[in-house]
């Protein structure tokens, strides 16, 4: 990787060389797990120089929690007892290491109120990505220091402190000064009723805005449309209705729209008018889960979205009418369809969708079961398969006979399968079936649930799969998987 | 519509415009230059390497151009190399590194990815000594220095 080892080859214009090496080293580091990267640092001086900054590119600082699983040691002395009861300290970089390297941090995730943060903050002026849980005053300092580089800002309240909210009013003028800011996500935030103008000014430069579990006493005020906003997520957030147009009306280039709101109803009527005026042409991803939209309105919406490829409508009344529109006009483009807890989407609708929509990569519905193997088999692009609950069962878990000789063999066509979720519908498989899985589904990367209902066999089965499929991650539940992903 | 690329050792390569434009550097150059059909000099790439790069671009000429989202975590997997790409990357180490550097210079991200993944797979799970052996690298650290680096970076280890 270093030109010193190839003395005859003159590859670079000398003035570009240092930058080229740095960019390549960083790109390369993204394909290494942490421990391999650490081993690379010790290979030679030039490898150390090239790769040490890469170690610091993404930095995560999370709250320590007391370790619940320390073993009981009955005969240890007092000192050991003290160790057992104190928090497990996370090992931190040395001050010298921070001096040398903290300036390379481009992506930072941290939990506020950690003492160590104060040592880091003065060195941070190259941040592009900042994700903060539990707001502290350091946020203002970081926004100031990184005003020209910060691209993404995610603020979250502390989940362990009920009612922990972020008063965004404190940082509006810092956000206005962040010239490179394009993506903002606010969780558990409050915006006061006199900050609409500043909010609007910030929205003008954004490409993505997500408002989750938040309360906006005033919506972003603007005379003009938000010409860059292509992603808008409104999840369980309160926006005042007033006489202002709904937010989506100000977004002519919207590609992804999520409305998952418990309080406040999406004005379907206004949304349909918006789409009818041809404003939904760029919209390819739509998530209306939990919005209680009726079947006929969903049908109208899908019909008005020529670019639709991803649709989520969990907990809605998606039913026969919407299904008909999907298979009649969107069957060659729809790639993702997630319809969990839709009482109107039954086995017949599932069968119709599976037969018609050949480009499906992600399909989640409550009624996928053994009857659908032949239909599933044609979805050669399927990347995510989530086996759902059978709705007329009184007791769970429902066991799905998923053996090679009873239908599984048909799914050898799913060569791109990456995620198998069988948390809700437990497959009964034998060892030969597991061997089939490791031979056939080589792309499988995530398994949620277990491929054996028997408790003792479960861990052995999952371990076998993980040992045979490099990179496979196994989780018992979706909740476990979400936690693990958040901790990364 | 052919384009002529000239390697650092002055060899001409005639390539379809669509293939050449897999390189964002070349694509931008062509946009700047407009209708002119003068050859494009590539002083940073030798003929041997350019041959391989063109072979890759020809094979992948119809691939969709992927624009990664800035917000995404840049860390990626390396265990998903296509079979053709794997065979393509079966070259000696020197050529492997030259391809990576050329892909970076020419801004051909998928080729850069494949090159990096290939090297990553060679060194995955290896100790520093094993990595040195794999690439014929001389250890210029003292044992104390090496130990200090290990200690200083304990905080980053995956537990």
TrEMBL record, chain A:
SUPFAM superfamilies: RNI-like
Taxonomic source organism: Linnemannia gamsii
Region: Disordered, residue numbers: 73-94
Protein name: F-box domain-containing protein
From TrEMBL, chain B:
Family: Belongs to the SKP1 family.
Domain SKP1 component dimerisation: 109-156
Pathways involved: Protein modification; protein ubiquitination
SMART domains to which the protein is assigned, alphabetical: Skp1 (SM00512)
Biological function: Essential component of the SCF (SKP1-CUL1-F-box protein) E3 ubiquitin ligase complexes, which mediate the ubiquitination and subsequent proteasomal degradation of target proteins.
InterPro entries: SKP1 (IPR016897), SKP1-like (IPR001232), SKP1-like_dim_sf (IPR036296), SKP1/BTB/POZ_sf (IPR011333), Skp1_comp_dimer (IPR016072), Skp1_comp_POZ (IPR016073)
Keyword check for rRNA processing: no
Domain of life the protein comes from: Eukaryota
Keywords: Ubl conjugation pathway
Protein name per UniProt: E3 ubiquitin ligase complex SCF subunit
Transcription regulation among keywords: no
Pfam family of the protein (one): Skp1_POZ
Annotated ranges, domain SKP1 component POZ: 3-62
Subunit record text: Component of the SCF (SKP1-CUL1-F-box protein) E3 ubiquitin ligase complexes.
